[in-house]
Amino acid sequence: MTPPSRRLEGRVGVVTGAGRGLGREVSRALAAEGMRLLVLARTGTEVRALADELEAGYDVAVLPAAVDVRDAEAVERVVEHVEQRLGPVDLLVNAAARIERTELPFWQADPAELWDVVETNLRGPLLLTRALLPQMVARRHGHVVNLASTARAATRTGTYSGYAVSKRALTVLTEVLAASLAGTGVVVLDVLPGLVRTSMTTGMPVWRDVPDDGWDPASATTKTVVEVALGRYDTAAGTVLDAPALARRRASDRGP
């Protein structure tokens, strides 16, 4: 496996939810560009396998860690660990997310499960971002990417309340951070993946009948995240980058 380029060589990134789905694909794309990585997931088996794959395939240092992103002390420890082992962090990608197991209206849903979804999708990014921002601000350089959602499943079904609320709140967090970080050299952005075929989305009844051409490619998101890390969207801080729309624009610019 020969890396196509090394545009992010010498930089360090942290990707949550890296064990599967978009977090895994984003990690691959960043490693292909030469970025050293800390890859996080709740269980260690998947991220250890990913770390081995990326180190062998792209000749980059990759640290795997089994961390519950809702655990403030664990987050602080792993951030200290990555800074000691790999160096200052240039990029954080908050990709860890979960959704309710069943399609139920709010008043029938389990409150404990709803709160667990909110904690993973909102508290997790909040804790990671809070742990990494001080050093980014001190160095006047850094990027934070939050994977956003229009929560179309919730809109279509009137369910998945915890997921919808947490993702909307995460976008508000991005907007608030962008305002407070103006002029610091640190950029926070949302990236909207669209509807990507992952173990989470394919397990949801609402998407059961989506045709093959109804899914958005994961590559649209991974390319957008790489471009964010390269500073190409710094002037758009605090906004939502629609990854599938950007991919269509790239294809149009290339022409037939």
Overall pLDDT metric? 94
Radius of gyration: 18 Å
Helix and strand string, N-terminal first? EHEHEHEHEHHEHHEH
The proportion of residues forming helix, as a percent range, comes to: 40-55%
Structural class: alpha/beta
- Low-pLDDT segments, ≥5 res: none
Strand content: 5-15%
Q: What would the principal axes of the Cα set say about the shape?
A: globular
Strand count, sense and barrel status of the largest sheet are: 7 strands, parallel
Strand order of the largest sheet: 3-2-1-4-5-6-7
Q: What's the total helix number?
A: 9
Summary, kept brief:
By secondary structure, the chain is of the alpha/beta class. Helices cover 49% and strands 14% of the residues.
What does the model show?
The chain has 256 residues and is of the alpha/beta class. The chain is built from 9 helices and 7 strands. It has helices at 21-32, 44-58, 72-85, 111-139, 152-157, 161-181, 199-202, 218-229, 243-254; strands at 12-15, 36-41, 62-66, 91-94, 142-147, 186-192, 240-242. A 7-stranded parallel β-sheet has the order 3-2-1-4-5-6-7, with helices on both faces.
